[in-house]
Structures are given as C-alpha cells and as structure tokens.
Structures
1.
Amino acid sequence: MASPDLVQQLVEVSLSPPWVFVIVGSLGFSCMSSLATMFREELQPVTHALLDVLAAAGRGMLACSRGSVWCLHRLVYPIKERAIGRYDACDSWMFPYKAKQPGHNIPTFQF
C-alpha cells in the first residue's frame, strides 16, 4: 500500500507547471478529436471554408512578400552600382596603375 506522503508527492508533481500543461493538452486534444469524429459530416463544410480562407490569406501574404522583395531589389541595385563606381573611381585615383585603360601599341578596329 502506498504511503500518504507518496500519494501527496505524486499529486503535487502532476499539478506542477510542466505536467499540468501536458495533462490539460492531452485531455483537450482527446476531447476535440472525439467531437470532430462525432460531428464529421456537419463540420466538413466549415472545415473546407476555413481552409479556403487560410489558403487565400496565405496566397495574399506570399504575393505581398514577393512584391516587397522585387521592389527592394529595384531600389538597392542603383545604390549598390553607384557605391561600387565611387569605390572604383577613388581606387583608380589613389592607385593610377589600377585604372582601366586600353593597352598601348595594341591594334584597334576603326571604320
């Protein structure tokens, strides 16, 4: 036979925060699944409507995020090119041997 202290300790442990969430969650899940099984025919149109709404919201969020990324790319590219151009100009001014110049004594095509 279990001692009263052991029973009291088990009750205290089972009602402490991590275990109480597990117990309440499993009870809630089992109740919801039994209700969903009992009322499957009645809940099917509602479930399909809810899934349609969630799909439309997901497509809208995806379109907005793709549009935002497209705008961000178009906004940042000229700034990046200008910064790289300024860096190249400063670098060729400080180190003239790095400047891009046509080679000497190299034949060119002319009309």
2.
Amino acid sequence: MLSLSCRTYQVCCEDTELLDLRVANGAPRQCKVAHEGMEDDVAFILSDPSHLNFCPSVSGVNSRTAFPPFICTWVQTPDYTIEGCKQDYCTSGLQGLQNF
C-alpha cells in the first residue's frame, strides 16, 4: 500500500514541466543531481521524491503502479492543495510524501 501511495504522490505532485525541461537539457529526470564525489546513497535518494529509487526505498517494493491522476483532487483539503504539493515537491523530500 505504501508503494501505491508513494507512486500516487509522484503522479499528483511532480512538477512534470520542470523535470521534462531538465531532460531536454541533458540532465536526469530528477529534482536533484548528485555532483561529482557525492554518493547516490539512501539519504540522497530520500531527499528527492523524483529519484527513480525513491518509492522502492520507502516501501521496499519496486512497482510503477499508481492511482490515476483524477484522484489527485480527492486528496485536497482546505489545508492541503495539489498546487502547494507541486510547489514544494522538489524541496520536501520524504516529508512531502508523509504530508501527502
């Protein structure tokens, strides 16, 4: 279930325009890029929800299954919006998933 929630978080909150732009400019499709000498370790992975191994690291399951995007509006409350989630996505790390 955690894997499904995590993947749905990515579907709902990922800033696809930003990440698509990064790919178009030759960068990986991630919020953060490890600089030379940095390890791509668990701490780095959990700080970047767009990392390919973020959800597998959180849930222990390597699955790409997610709820369809229409469900994103269902998770909104007066205190939690998808727009805010998208705005904070790249900087929120694991906390963003927990808030979702």
